[in-house]
Design brief:
Elements: H1 9-12, H2 18-45, H3 51-55, E1 60-63, H4 72-76, E2 82-88, E3 91-98, E4 112-115, E5 126-128, E6 144-146, E7 153-154, E8 172-173, E9 175-179, E10 182-186
Antiparallel strand pairs: 1-2, 1-10, 2-3, 3-4, 4-8, 5-6, 6-7, 9-10
Length: 190
């Protein structure tokens, strides 16, 4: 007789007790679940830059609904905000150019340009020239901004929240220029 030891399939793979296997399996699923839960939080805190943000390095004109550039002369002649659109690639942002007549504290040579996207949930705010008293009791002879969705209210220059659920004032473009009487903006609205 031979003293040879038979090596069957049970010798090739060591047996792992069922309880230990289940603990390892639970550990793997817990790790995957933790990573899947952390990734959205991290991307919310540090969002990746979009292609539009990377691409927009030049000044873009503000146009009216017909695509005609809005001019400084047009804004200076107005007693209410001049509504327009800023086109950046595929994205169109509704904006308003605020005349100095209703924004006396503005000292920059180019006019103030604000996004008309409500900072609450993204609805387009409307200027209410016939309304003169905001919900907080403050009076505005030329009217004020109001969001049609949840009634957030802003003064004519968009600089603060007068009422409603908006968490912050309207977005102000900081890089505004006037070229050949046309108003241009550099940057991306948030």
């Amino acid at each position: 007789m031979s003293d040879a030891v038979s090596h069957g399939p049970e010798d090739a793979f060591p047996l792992v007790p069922r309880q230990r296997f289940l603990q390892q399996l639970i550990g793997v699923f817990a790790t995957i679940g933790t990573i899947a839960g952390i990734v959205p939080i991290v991307t919310y805190i540090w969002p990746p830059k979009s292609n539009t943000e990377k691409a927009e390095e030049s000044f873009q004109p503000i146009t009216d609904d017909a695509g005609k550039p809005i001019t400084l002369s047009e804004v200076n002649a107005s007693k209410t905000p001049v509504l327009g659109v800023l086109t950046q690639g595929e994205k169109q942002t509704p904006v308003a150019v605020i005349p100095n007549a209703i924004n006396p504290g503005w000292t920059k040579p180019a006019p103030k340009v604000v996004s008309r996207v409500c900072p609450h949930l993204g609805c387009t705010v409307a200027f209410r020239p016939d309304e003169h008293k905001a919900d907080d009791g403050e009076s505005f002879p030329d009217g004020f901004w109001q969001c049609p969705c949840h009634r957030s209210q802003f003064p004519p220059d968009g600089g603060k929240v007068l009422g409603g659920p908006a968490p912050r004032p309207m977005f102000v473009f900081t890089d505004v220029a006037v070229s050949n009487n046309d108003i241009t903006v550099k940057g991306v609205a948030s």
